[in-house]
Structures are given as structure tokens and as C-alpha cells.
Amino acid sequence: MKALNVKHWFADGVFRTILRNASYLGSSKLLGALLGLIALACAGRGMTPALFGTLVLIHSYANGVGAVVKFQTWQFIVRYGAPALGRGDLDELRDVTGFAFGLDLASGLVGLAGGLILLPFLAERFGIAAQDVSIAMLYCTLIPTMTAATPTGILRVLDRFDQLAVQQLVTPLLRAVGGAVSYFGNFGFTGFVVTWFVADLAGDLCLWIMAAIELRRKGIDGALRPGLLGPGRRLENAWDFVWTTNIAHSIWAAWGPISNLIVGALLGPTSAGLFKIASTFFDSASKPADLLSRSFYPEIMRLDPTSRHPWQLAIRSALISGAIGFVILLLVMLGGEPVIGMVFGKRYVEAYDLLQLMTASLIVTMASFPLESLLYMAGRQRAALVAEGAAALGYAGLIFMLIHVFGIEGAGLAYVAGVCLKAVFMLLPTLWAYRDRSSLSHVMTQGARA
């Protein structure tokens, strides 16, 4: 069959672009993952398991608050900015980026205030000791930069995935270098907190600088002038899109950080540290799907959703991603335990049992990555919201129940179940959207490529 002729797939210029951009991000992510392991190894060996778990909980709290309030402004910029740029309508592009920047500012300030106010009341429940609350509050000042996705969207619309690839190395590189200094210099818990803080801040600021330089190079001035009311009125359905994607992604993006907090609250900081190690390995293993998604979404938003082209691209990308996932699954199963023991020490090998459970969902995670992008392309973002919400509710119920029954292994089982629920809940509305694709002309992006 022609559809199964892999050589024919690469004759498609859009498919080649997706893979090219994913390769940019993938090469830096691979190096970033190695640097991240070095950083975690230094932290794991430089502190007791309890202090390492406390560092994880502090980072997870700030990251979790940011994930809850964060608007997916990069998706908004791709959805509205890519067609505007294709038409050469720079005024509309400025509205898009200004609206996104305004949302980032507002959500970041709300997240900062909420995180600082709630932390003293929630710290003990999440396993953060009273003497560490002040450090955790300092770490919360990163929330405004953690929530900002405008520069990411700008670089994707301007097809500067090479810049994004370089930026992805900043935080893990600084964490690795700072972690090594803290470890060999015996700077202890405070040294590692400062290292992670500086690394996160530098990585976020680097992204803004790159976006500003690229806009200036393209001669697009005034694109980073924040605004909400004016652009929100001029851009059709802008508020509906950002609220829907915000709620959907807030639910799912908070999965990892909140999982760490739940494990810490129920089982203590040491178990939170083990869960963090296992989830870090799993996230690293599933990165190819995330990278393909980041490249896939901007490309299909330029296509006609009523044609078969974007849907065919989704199937091809899913098959390739699933095959990569199978290979990675074998590597993790064979080499995960010795790598964890070598990097973190024998006291952390228990994390491999969790990793084995979590990798059961790896192929599902990687093969299902196009579903969300297809729903956004088809104007079915509310269906994506329902899918995300239903899966997250199922996961939340399972993690509490299974931890009480199986301990820390229950957290791994719940993670697998949550991933599978998300895939199923996303697949059903995607199939319906494909069946009714002839009615999608109202969501066609202007200036779409044939």
C-alpha cells in the first residue's frame, strides 16, 4: 500500500520539515538529558535522600503553581500568528504576540501571589519542613518566568527551532556545572537550591532574549508590547481558545509536579525523591514524542483540515514515534537499573522498580502525541479539555487509592493508568473529527498551504 511505503513519506516536504525541526530539538534534548542526569546525580550524592527529596518538593511546588496558572500562549501564537505571518499581516501578528505577552504577565503575577500566600499553609502537608519554607518562598519568585510561553511561540512561528534547541541546553548545563561545584565544594542543600534557582532563571531569560533578537532581525517591532483588552476584541475567539487550552494544559502540566507533592505528602520526602528519579527517566525516554509534537503542531496549523494531508501526517508521525518508543522501552528495561545505581548510588536503585512500571505506558505516550494537535487544528479544543480533565480526575483518584494499597509502587501504576486514559479520551473525539472533516472549513487557517 502507498500509505505504508515509508520511502514515499519522505517525499512530503511538510513531513521532512517536522522531522528536521524535531531533530534540532532532539539533539539538544539528548545532551540536555545527560546534563540533567549529571545534575540529579550530584544532588542525589551530595545530600541525604530526605534533603534531595525536599529540593524536589520545593521545585515541584513552584513548578506546579506555574503549571496551574499558565496559559498555553505558545499554542495561541502558533494558531493565530502563523496564518497572520503567512499573509504578511504584521499588525495582526503584533496583536497576537502582545495578547500572549499580556496573558503571561497577568498569570505570572497571579501565580506568584497565590504561591506565596498558600505556601505557609501547604508546606507541611507537602512534606516541606518549617525551616525550609523561607527558601521555598524565594524559589517561588521564579513562577512569573516559569509561566511565560510567549517567546517559545514566537520562535516556533518564525521557524527558529535551532534557537530553541540551543536554549534547551542552558538550564541543564548550568544545573550540571553548579551541581558539580556544590557537590565537590560541599555546599550542601543551600548550594543546590541556589544552583537550581539560577539555572531556571537563566534558561527562561535566555528564551526572551532570543525571541527579542529574532523579532528585531525580522524587522517586526512592537511585537512584545503587552495588551489584553484591545487585541482580545480584534482577534476572533481569542479568549475562548486561551481559556480552553489553559485549563486543559494546566490540568495535565501539573501532573508531574503535583504527583511529586502527593507522594511526598503521603509517603515522605525520600519517596518523593525516588519518584522524581523514576519520572525523570521516563520523561527523558518519552522526549522524542514531545519534540515531534512541538514540530508537528505548527506545521499542521498551516494545512487544510478538510483534506487528508494533516491526518496522514499524524498517522506517519505516530508510527515513527511509537517505533522509537519500543526501542527506548527495550533500552530502559535492559539498562535502567545499572544506570540508576551508577549515577545516583545503590540507595536509589529502588527507583528502577517504579521506572519499570511507568515504562509500560511509554509506547502509548509516544504513539498518541498527534491527537491533541489534531483536535486543536479541527477547532475541537473543548473536546481536548474534556479528555484532559477526565484523565486527570481518573489519575488523581487512582494515585491516592493505589498508594494506600501498594505504597510507592502504586504511584507508578496510577501513572500508567493515567497515560492510557488520556490516550483513549483523546482518540475518540479525534476519530469523530476525522469522520466529519468535510465540515471543518470554518476553522481553516487563512493562507494555508495546499
UniProtKB/TrEMBL annotation:
It is a multi-pass membrane protein. The chain crosses the membrane at residues 30-52, 99-123, 135-154, 187-210, 313-334, 354-371, 383-406, 412-434. It is found in: Cell membrane. Keywords: Cell membrane, Membrane, Transmembrane, Transmembrane helix. GO terms for cellular component: plasma membrane. Its main location: membrane. The keyword Cell cycle does not apply. PANTHER family: INNER MEMBRANE PROTEIN YGHQ, PST FAMILY PREDICTED COLANIC ACID TRANSPORTER. This is Membrane protein. It comes from Novosphingobium barchaimii LL02. The lineage of its organism: Bacteria, Pseudomonadati, Pseudomonadota, Alphaproteobacteria, Sphingomonadales.
